Amino acid sequence: MDERVRKVIQRFDFERAPVGVKFVNAKPEGLARPEKAMDFCEMLKAAQEGLSFYVTREDFTCIGPLILGMVESEPIFEQGRVGPRLGVFKDERANRRIYQYLPRLPRNSIRYVAFSPLEKLSFDPDLLILLARVDQAEILIRAKAYTTGEMWVARGTPVAGCAWVYIYPYLTGEINFTVTGFGFGMK
After folding, report:
1. Residue 167 lies in a domain
2. Is CB count within 10 Å lower at the N or C end of the chain?
3. pLDDT grade, residue 183 (50/70/90)?
4. Residue 177: inside a domain
């Protein structure tokens, strides 16, 4: 990561460490796999707490590998049968609808995901995930629009929030703003 960018980000003094994320096919050097499998959202928290690591599809306990294109979708998900069982959706119809919106990486396009807090970052990240207070987020929004006048967006769904934190910004190159605690995943 460019040292100037790193210094600007450090000046924000974020409450939680910014996290760099990289989607790769070659096994990341200098990083180890986590000791236990976890949800995609928990991986962000682990990196915010200081861990640098990489994961494979076997390290997930959620639908992360599906949205990362690491596995084929199981019919039970696309049929909308999981959400009603968990009480997240009224019926299968409502649950099925989210699949028209969920961003996903193409099948077999990556094999590994690397995570690292900013202070330990040893790779050029595809994403930099920031957990910001409202006053900090305002500066980021204004900086994005300062020379372009572009509007900002906030996209998400009540489940699979990881698709909007990781995949949407990666595929579109857009900044995505979300409010923590809205999704069904980690609270």
Report:
1. yes
2. C
3. low
4. no
Q: Is residue 67 part of a domain?
A: yes
Contact between 112 and 55 (Cβ < 8 Å): yes
Full strand arrangement of the beta sheet holding 19-24: 53-55, 112-117, 19-24, 127-129
- pTM metric for this prediction: 0.91
| Domain with 20 in it | 3-172
Phi and psi torsions of 57, nearest 5°? -60, -25
- Would the pLDDT of 32 be above 90? yes
**pLDDT for position 137:** 94
Distance CA(18)–CA(57), nearest Å, equals: 24
The answer to whether the beta carbons of residues 57 and 63 sit under 8 Å apart is no
Amino acid occupying residue 19: V
Q: Name the domain count of the chain.
A: 1
**What does the pLDDT read at residue 71?**
96
Could you write out the three-class secondary structure of 63-129? CHHHHCCCCCCCHHHHCCCHHHHHCCCCCHHHHHHHHHCCCCCCCCCCCEEEEEEHHHCCCCCCEEE
Task: Give residue-wise pLDDT tens across range 48-102.
Answer: 999 999 999 999 999 999 999 999 988 898 899 999 999 999 999 999 999 889 9
Give CA angle at 136 (164, 162), nearest 5°: 15
Mean pLDDT, the chain, whole residue set: 93
